[in-house]
Each structure stands twice: as C-alpha cells, then as structure tokens.
Amino acid sequence: MITVQRVELDDPRARSLWDEQQGELAARYGEPDIEFDFADHMAPGDLIGSYLALDASGEAIGTGLVRWSPYDTGAGAVEVKRLYVRPAHRGHGHSRVIVGVLEQAALRAGAVRVVLETGVEQPEALVLYERIGYARFPGYGEYKDDPRSVCFSKELPTRVLVVNGSIGAGKTSVAESAYDALADRGAHAAMIDGDFLCQARPTQTEDPFNQELLFANLAAVAPVYRQAGFGYVVVARVVEDLEDRARYAQAFAVPSPAGGAMPAQVVIARVTAPESTRKDRIVHRDLDPAWHQWGHARTVELEANLVSLQLDDVVVTNADRSPRETAEELLERVGW
Hints:
The protein is of the alpha/beta class.
C-alpha cells in the first residue's frame, strides 16, 4: 500500500530519487537520460504536477512527473517523466498506481494524450506500458533518432460537461463561467452553446427542438476541438431525453488505436433557481410581452419535466450569487 502526494518541483526527496534513477539508467545504457536536467529548464506553466510515492512507513519509494509536452506530439499532449520505483519496492504494482495518478492529473488539466519515452534496456517498463493500454508512438524530441529509445502514447477520453436547466435558470451563464474557471486554472477547455447549433427553421414535427441537428453538428466539430488539444468541452443545453447522455458520449468519442472508439466521459449538471427568479430573468432578457408569456409558461413546464426525469449527476442552485460562484460549486461537485 502506497500513498502518492503532489510535491514541489524542488522537493529534495523526489530529487534524490531522480538521482537514483539516473544512476540506474547510466548503468543500463552507459549514460544518464539525455534530458537529465529538464526540470531546471521548464517554461512557466509547463508543469502539471510532480508526485512522490510513500510506503506505509512514510519512506519515499517512487516518483512521477507530468508536464505539457514541449515536443511535436500533438496539441494537448502531456509527457510523463521520472517514473521510478526503488528496486526493493518493485513487483507490487506501485508503478501502475503512480501512472494512474499522473493520468488523473493530465485529465484534470484537460489533456487529450499522454506520451512517454523508455528504452530497450528496460524490458519491465515496456511490458508495463503495453499492459496498461499504451501503444507504440513515433520517437520525438531528443529521442527521435535514438535506436535505444521506445516511445509510447495513450489517448485520453474527452470530458464533456452538459449544463442543463430550465429557461431562466442561468445554464448558459453558468456554463460560460465554468469554462472561464477551467481556463483560468490553465486547463485546455472549450465551450459550446448548444442552442446555437440547432437554430434553424422550419423544424420537423418529430424533432421540434432540432436535436438531430444538434448532435450532427457536435459530431462534426468534436474532432476539430480534439485536434486543437481541448480535453474539456462545456456544453450549455437542455437535456430532456434519456438517450442524450449516450449521444454526447458518441459525438465526442475518440477513435481507438485498437479499433472502435473510446466514448467521451459525460457529466450532466443541472442549474436551478426559484420560479420567481427564473421569471424575473425572462422579463429582463427580452422586452417582448409575447416572449414573457411563452417563457413564463415554458419555464414552469420544463422545470417540472427536468425534476421528474432525474437525468442529472448533480443539481446546483443558481440564485442570490454570481454565475461564477455557482460554476465553482458545480465543478467541485462533479470532480472537475
């Protein structure tokens, strides 16, 4: 049993283990890692997290680091560095645990891909990466033309947050604030107002809200966001259909190297507000009395539908505070 904790880049325990790793690499390859001093030259913002693994007694027995890749490995790619477990502690799955922590850090940063380099003189590492879903990847950076190097990559699922809510609840403003909060912490994130992708007339009787048009458009733009390196996508859109979660997951699915597709991770979060608050917002949104009449009736009907359907992972109240405060609570509750 180990505990993995985030530490500062200059943590002396981690640095000591890095030195041990360099000694082992020098013994295997006749020289240390080409990038042995990479941590001292990273640009501000490149580091996602440096981690230290501790055994039950608190002894430091392993390390791992993940940073935004400085190489031509595709937008939104992160690189794992300094994955190391002391020899006496190997064979217990500790490396898998550390890699899992690094991947979670990459997901939280909005990455779309993890890359790493190992070598032919580390057969145990080659087996590990293949067992946990990594695929061979073209050499990059300093390792590009080194015949001893073996590079790997793993695609990460796109994470989609659908902000649901009745008219006047503030789903669009909260979705925009959630996007801002993600971007402010340095995550790679994009925001889509779903209503904009299905504004077309005349509508079809069997599809009055243009849902088919929405998902066709999402499937068309999803690869563009992915190629640009955005692992987070926030979508503002009402969710009234039991099948919508699966349709979002499919629209943002990522082709798998082994064939098929890896569906997106979808979270549906509903924002709500008291009926009087929603109706006041409808009045302030547009001066047309006809809109007020329709909107007031629709917000009551839609709120009742959303409550009864219970399609949401979380529900947050968006009243008597700013949309940003609501968004911060929402992100915390969904684990983003």
